[in-house]
Predict the structure.
Amino acid sequence: MHNPDPGSSGNSPAADVPPAGIVPPPIPAAGAAHSLEAAALLPLIDASVLDELDDELAGSGLARRFARDYAAMWDTRLARLGTAVDSQDEASALDAVISLKISSAMVGGIRLAKLAEVLEALIRQGDFVQGQAMMAGVAHDGARTVSELQSTFILEQG
């Protein structure tokens, strides 16, 4: 017999909400994979970010210098993050990945900023195995981001 109460079928949206006081589990690796797929769809660079910063700084060249410094620090930043993730040093890994996320966003490196956001979530969950697996992609997209910055904004403006 059909139950007329739509909330009792288990198919209602309320069936997906945990009861009060129950904390949902951390995002599984599948959630990270979905986020990585979304990140891959983002462009490496949003040039408007640095153009806007340059405009705000009245064309003083500070935005170009910031981009140049970001590019120059890439290898050091990547090595610091990789070492912290490999050694499973949560505090150092969080410091490094948050620095990467913020600085990448500031230069318009939106794909790398998103990857850093996903990596940050994994580190906060203590999933260093998945974090280590992500490092190759971070290194690859980071190098591509730096290359794009150098060939477009830094040289173009310089």
Notes: The helical segments are 29-40, 47-56, 62-86, 90-106, 110-124, 128-157.
